[in-house]
């Protein structure tokens, strides 16, 4: 285990907080704030994959952080599209989604990177 893991706890906490905020944003957006259909839409289900990742991110599981960092790129893309095309307030919510997705991605990479470097180093030394 890399020695600088204790210094990466803020990154793990940041990843959890931004992922939780992104999940709540997706639910609130499609339920009340700016749903595609009045009264809410089935797009609220887009929060399920994010919610599924929350327990693993909270426990700092590397595998979960890795796949969730790839998953969140879909929400980043959706945020850009909706930020540029939706009428207000949907466009603002799209840019908030972009910011949260980037925040999670950055925190997840900051936490996972030392583990990946240590694994590469161990593989080189073992070979």
UniProtKB/TrEMBL annotation:
The keyword Transport does not apply. It comes from the Bacteria. Keywords: Membrane, Transmembrane, Transmembrane helix. The chain crosses the membrane at residues 12-34, 40-58, 65-81, 93-114. This is DUF2069 domain-containing protein. InterPro entries: DUF2069_membrane (IPR018643). It holds the Pfam family DUF2069.
């Amino acid at each position: 285990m890399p020695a600088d893991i204790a210094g990466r706890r803020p990154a793990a906490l940041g990843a959890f907080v931004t992922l939780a905020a992104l999940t709540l944003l997706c639910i609130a957006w499609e339920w009340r704030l700016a749903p595609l259909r009045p009264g809410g839409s089935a797009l609220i289900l887009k929060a399920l994959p994010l919610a599924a990742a929350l327990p693993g991110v909270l426990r700092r599981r590397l595998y979960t952080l890795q796949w969730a960092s790839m998953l969140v790129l879909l929400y980043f893309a959706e945020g850009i599209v909706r930020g540029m095309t939706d009428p207000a307030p949907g466009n603002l919510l799209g840019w908030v989604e972009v910011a949260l997705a980037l925040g999670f991605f950055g925190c997840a990479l900051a936490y996972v990177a030392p583990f990946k470097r240590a694994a590469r180093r161990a593989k080189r030394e073992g070979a």
